[in-house]
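Consider a protein example.
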Amino acid sequence: MSTTSQTFDQVLASTYVNLADERVGTQIISVTDEFFAPAIRMLDPKPAVFHPGKFDDHGQYMEGWESRRKRVAGYDCCIVQLGLAGKIVGVDIDTSHFTGNYPVAASIDACCIAKGEKPDNWQEILHTVTLGPSAHHYHAVKVEGHWTHVRLNIYPDGGIARLRIYGVVQPSEDRFNDEIDLLALENGGRAVAASDEHYGNPWSLLRPGRGINMGDGWETRRRRVPGNEWCILALGKRGRISRIILDTAHYKGNYPDKCIIQGADVTVDNSKSLVTQSMFWQTLLPEQKLTMDAIHTYDKEQIIDLGPITHLRVNIIPDGGLSRVRAFGRVE
């Protein structure tokens, strides 16, 4: 997950979280028109798929948001409440499979409001950009701010398969008054690096709830050489860990045999440097035997008190899949 030799789209997907992921509570607040396809489909985390010959009452079934052909002046727009509020660094406006019905251009506005307020005081974060048929359109966002909502404007009408809003979660400080899962996405937890991501990305470990299937977790390929697989996770806030949960939900013939977790209090956030350092971090959770499709909970009796830490290295032995990792503690 290092940014070395990565393209801009790879950096966005590996380094930042999709603040508009449907799985973290993102909602459609309003839309001017969704005659051919509802806007909620635009938030599906899975890549868009075309369904030849599949029709509904409005025509060809499309994965994404599609408005009717506009016969008057104006344009269509959709307001999205982000599941995770925070700083936006980049977007992907995806027109996959929209070939003769894609918008010719789009722009994005954003605002920050308190819960229950009506979205207002919009600020443009992405000036009008040209769109093409069936393609990903990645753009950096340079406007600083803490955002809770975005408004996607399409000119004049058409279809968007997927909307990804990549950024950094910025949770409110009052979330950290009590013991809390410091690794959770909603609390600012991040995946930094991993030895292998063949079947799944370690970002999945931080999502809310239990995994829905084996595709909703971090899973490595079968290891054919000595050693073990690992991933590095950053806490949302520096804190002292008192409880750890390892969940192997849905992993039955491919769960890790054992797990060891290391921890450290570090200030460097360069992924390449952290990978090297992490080999020598102190043990937070000594080697534990894991079982299939189960929740494993460890408390102060098993956890070694390292004091306040910022990062974890989760070592799975020798390989396999984990659904979720939780690290409960208090901010210090």
In short: The two ends are 28 Å apart (CA to CA). The chain has two helices and 22 strands. Helices lie at 8-15, 271-278. The longest strand covers residues 76-94.
